[in-house]
Each structure stands twice: as structure tokens, then as C-alpha cells.
Design a protein that fits this description.
Length: 414
């Protein structure tokens, strides 16, 4: 039996185990250091983020920011009120040619649109077989009645002479006279029928009622036409009628003798003329006054049935202030705009004199010449806002602005 180490006492062994357990459960010294470092790092990161967020905040109010806008300077101009009406250019006379009494087949159509015809020229013919036969029958009937009337008239004269000698009775003489008068009435009736048949025959040959130009050809040979059917149309363009309608409040503006400027949209030609006639009564449906202007066109250069604008100047030219129409908001007869003074935009309402093309004419006493007006960016402005003004580039002159420079105006509805 080998010699073994003597065992420790039980109490000493338990104490040793407790010391080992205490040493094993004690945390290392580096763990608190890590926790403290992470806490400081998080605190520093939070402080940096707070500083960064506060640095990005804009502490300037929106009212204190200058808004970039474009501005223009109001200019001096001249304005004259005017009225513009859209009318129709019509021929002096126009006619639709076709049968008026008979129904028949079209035999020939001798003209085409654009042909110039003289008064009485044949433009179309119809198949007149039936009307011609009816006319000949009426003529023969009228001849027979005329022969009977002559015979009865002679017999009545002879009986009247026998009555003076007492050879015939008074009753017989009166009967012969009555028969003669009845035959005369029948003769007149036959002549009337013959005249009616002659009209039917004449209706088969269609002639131009006046000298002019063929405007339309509706029917070709072989078609069947009835009374009232149009075969061709003819117009006379030596004198034109420009017709238009004006509002009832412009009754005095379109008085007879007023000088107007007419522009034909089809050719672009312009002519000055005077109002020839004006209706004394307004249209009950539209409450407009109809007026006409006669324009001589001996060369027949303007087509009819086209559009013509009629411009009438009203009153006298007056001084005005000009600004572009886009620099203001127009509400009825007022213009809302912004005026720039020392970097601050002030809102104003100015009375409108008129508008021509892209130019707005205002009263100079309400908007003096040289005033700086906001042209672009006014939609984002409010009264007394600070602005950073940039002068707007001048726009190219338009036809309407050229007219405004000459002192012509165009009235806005009020």
C-alpha cells in the first residue's frame, strides 16, 4: 500500500472553494472603462448632431427675404378709344336661278363657277316637251274661241239690225248679245291659259337676271328639278355690302356717315368707307343693331361671303401710360399691379383706358410715366414685400403695339 498525501481538513477545503468562486465571479477591470467610453462617445455624437441641426436652421423670416422679380418702366403713350366689329362681305345683289313654274329634267347647264355672264344670257335649259305641247294646245283653243266669238258678234249685229225693222223679237236680240259676250269671256279665259302656258315655256330657258359672275353650280344635266330648285347662282361684285351687328349701346357709334376702316381677312386688303345704312330697330333676340357699309370694287378683287373686320375710332386721342399686358391682372375695368419703390413692392389698382395687342393703357394720373412696375413674379408677391428687381428685356414690337404708337386703340368691354 502506497503512501498517499494526507487529505486537507473539510473546513479548509470549503474555504478554498469559496475563494475560487469569488475570484471567478468578479468582473474584469476593463469592462467599466469600455462602458464609460461608449457613453461619452454617444454623448459627443448627440451634441454634434444638435449643433449641426441648429447650424442649418434659417433664422431669417420669409418676410425679410427679398424676392427676385422682373420689372419694367411705364412709358408715355397715346390712346384713342375704338370699336371693332366682325362683319360679312356680301355682294350687292345675288340670285339663285332655277325653274319657278314647272318640273322638268335639266337639258343643259352652260356655265361654270367664275364665268362672267351678261344680263339676259342663257345659263341653263330644261326639257320643254310637255310645256310646249300644252302651250300649242292652249293657242289652238284660244283660236277656236276667237273664231266663235267673231261669228256670234257678227250675228248679234245682224239681229240687232233686224230688230229695228221689227223682223225679230227683242228677246232673240238680247240672247244673241249675251252669247257674244259669253264667247268673249271664254276668249279672255283662253288667252289667260295661253299666257300661263307661255310662262311655262319661258321657264324652260333660264337666263341671267343681271350682269355678274356665276358663284355656284348645283345641278348638272339629267337631274330632275322642281319649282324653287337652284341650278346656278349669280352675284354682282361691282359694289360690296359689308354687314355687321353692333351692341345696342353703340347705336350712336354706328350712325350713318361715320367713317370706318374695313379689313378683308381673305385678301388682307384695307379700305376706308362710310356707313351707308343703319337699322332703326334692334334685333329682339340679340339686342344688336344691324348696319351696312357699301364698298366699291370695280375690279372684283374681294371674294364675297368672307369675313371683314370693321374698326371705328371713337372720340379723340388722349395721353396714357403704357405697360405690358402681362404686368397686370385685369378685372373688368381695373388693373391690379405692383409698383416697386426703394426695393419694396406696393400693390395698386389702376383704371384701364383700353388694350391694344400686348399693351395696356392706363390713366397717367393714377400711374405716372417712369413708374417701375413688376412684370414677372407678381403672382408670388404680397403688399409691402421686399423685392430684388431685375429689369425686363424689351419685347419686340408687335402689330398691336405699332398701332398703339400711332394712337389707335381698341376698347375693352365694360
Amino acid at each position: 500500500m502506497t503512501e498517499r498525501e494526507s487529505p486537507l481538513p473539510a473546513v479548509s477545503r470549503d474555504h478554498a472553494l469559496d475563494e475560487q468562486a469569488a475570484v471567478g465571479s468578479r468582473p474584469p477591470k476593463r469592462i467599466p472603462i469600455v462602458i464609460v467610453g461608449a457613453t461619452l462617445a454617444l454623448a459627443l455624437l448627440g451634441a454634434f448632431m444638435v449643433w449641426h441641426a441648429g447650424h442649418k436652421v434659417n433664422h431669417t423670416t420669409l418676410a425679410g427675404v427679398s424676392r427676385p422679380v422682373s420689372v419694367v418702366e411705364a412709358k408715355a403713350g397715346s390712346y384713342r378709344d375704338s370699336r371693332t366689329y366682325v362683319g360679312t362681305i356680301q355682294p350687292w345683289i345675288e340670285a339663285d336661278i332655277g325653274p319657278q313654274y314647272i318640273s322638268a329634267y335639266v337639258q343643259t347647264v352652260l356655265v361654270r363657277p367664275g364665268d362672267v355672264v351678261a344680263e339676259g344670257a342663257v345659263v341653263a335649259t330644261l326639257d320643254c316637251s310637255n310645256p310646249s305641247a300644252s302651250s300649242r294646245a292652249a293657242a289652238m283653243q284660244a283660236r277656236a274661241v276667237d273664231a266663235r266669238h267673231r261669228a256670234l258678234a257678227d250675228e248679234s249685229v245682224r239681229v240687232q239690225s233686224l230688230l229695228d225693222g221689227g223682223f225679230v223679237a227683242q228677246n232673240e236680240s238680247e240672247q244673241k248679245s249675251a252669247q257674244s259676250e259669253a264667247e268673249q269671256a271664254q276668249l279672255l279665259e283662253a288667252n289667260a291659259k295661253l299666257s300661263s302656258a307661255s310662262l311655262d315655256v319661258k321657264d324652260c330657258i333660264l337666263r341671267a337676271p343681271f350682269a355678274g359672275e356665276i358663284s355656284t353650280r348645283v345641278v348638272d344635266p339629267g337631274a330632275f328639278v322642281r319649282p324653287g330648285t337652284t341650278i346656278v347662282s349669280i352675284v354682282d361684285r361691282n359694289v360690296l355690302r359689308v354687314t355687321a351687328d353692333a351692341p345696342e349701346k353703340d347705336f350712336d357709334v354706328v350712325s350713318v356717315g361715320t367713317t370706318v376702316a374695313i379689313t378683308a381677312l381673305s385678301t388682307g386688303s384695307k379700305v376706308d368707307a362710310k356707313i351707308s345704312r343703319r337699322a332703326p330697330k334692334a334685333d329682339p333676340a340679340t339686342r344688336t343693331i344691324h348696319f351696312e357699309v357699301d364698298v366699291a370694287d370695280p375690279n372684283r378683287t374681294i371674294p364675297v361671303g368672307t369675313t371683314g373686320t370693321i374698326n371705328i375710332d371713337v372720340g379723340h386721342p388722349t395721353s396714357a401710360t403704357e405697360i405690358p399686358v402681362y404686368a397686370a391682372t385685369v378685372i373688368e375695368d381695373k388693373a391690379a399691379l405692383f409698383v416697386v419703390d426703394r426695393g419694396i413692392a406696393h400693390k395698386r389698382d389702376v383704371e384701364i383706358l383700353g388694350e391694344v395687342g400686348g399693351t395696356l393703357f392706363l390713366r397717367p394720373e393714377q400711374l405716372p410715366v417712369g413708374t417701375v412696375v413688376v412684370s414677372e413674379g407678381q403672382a408670388l408677391l404680397e403688399n409691402n414685400d421686399h423685392v430684388e428687381a431685375k429689369e425686363d428685356a424689351p419685347a419686340p414690337a408687335t402689330a398691336g403695339q405699332s398701332a398703339a404708337a400711332r394712337g389707335a386703340g381698341n376698347a375693352r368691354p365694360r
